[in-house]
């Protein structure tokens, strides 16, 4: 059993092979903080055009067009079956051409596929219908 004892100042210190990681970690933390500070804040908002004042009282009740969508995707325009998408778009185009557009009340069935309702709403928006609303939403509360 032998023990290696150095004699004080005459021996040279051992060379360190490992890198000192503390300064590198400090630099990395500073860079992460700078990155967090410079990332822009993302707002998840929907821009709405809200009325600025109170509307004048209406003298006549507004004209209403009822669009019902049955459970199988059948579209009814004021109770009459619309044969195809082209006829629906023609009717929406004629509504959009009127200066004082009538209100369109969209009433989907609870069992209808979402893509059918979304297609009707997208067609209305694309054709310039501005007064459209969903009616009968209380059936979806379940």
Kindly list the characteristics that best describe this protein.
142 residues, five-stranded mixed sheet, alpha/beta, 5 strands, single chain
Structural commentary:
With about 140 residues, the protein is of the alpha/beta class. It has a domain at about 65-140: Nucleotidyltransferase, domain 5 (2-Layer Sandwich), CATH 3.30.420. The protein is about 30% helix and about 15% strand. The chain has 3 helices and 5 strands, in the order αβββαβαβ. It has a 5-stranded mixed beta sheet, covered by helices on one side. A hairpin with a 5-residue loop joins strand 1 and strand 2 (about 75). It is elongated, with a radius of gyration of 35 Å. The model has no long low-confidence stretch (mean pLDDT about 85).
Structural class: alpha/beta
Report how far the terminal alpha carbons are from each other: 83 Å
Could you list the spans in which at least 5 consecutive residues all have pLDDT below 50? none
- Total beta strand runs: 5
Blueprint (SSEs and pairs):
Layout: H1 22-38, E1 64-69, E2 75-77, E3 80-81, H2 85-97, E4 103-108, H3 114-127, E5 132-134
Parallel strand pairs: 1-4, 4-5
Antiparallel strand pairs: 1-2, 2-3
Structure in a nutshell:
Helices cover 31% and strands 14% of the residues. It has three helices and five strands; from the N terminus they run αβββαβαβ.
């Amino acid at each position: 059993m032998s023990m290696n004892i150095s004699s004080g100042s005459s021996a040279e210190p051992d060379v360190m092979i490992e890198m000192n990681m503390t300064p590198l970690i400090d630099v990395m933390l500073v860079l992460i903080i700078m990155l967090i500070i410079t990332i822009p804040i993302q707002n998840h908002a929907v821009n709405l055009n809200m009325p600025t004042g109170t509307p004048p009282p209406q003298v006549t009740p507004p004209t209403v067009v009822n669009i019902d969508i049955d459970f199988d995707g059948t579209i009814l325009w004021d109770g009459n079956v619309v044969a195809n998408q082209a006829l629906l778009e023609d009717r929406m185009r004629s509504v959009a051409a009127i200066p004082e557009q009538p209100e369109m009340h969209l009433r989907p069935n609870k069992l209808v596929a979402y893509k059918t309702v979304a297609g009707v709403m997208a067609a209305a928006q694309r054709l310039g219908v501005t007064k459209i609303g969903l009616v009968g939403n209380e059936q979806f509360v379940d």
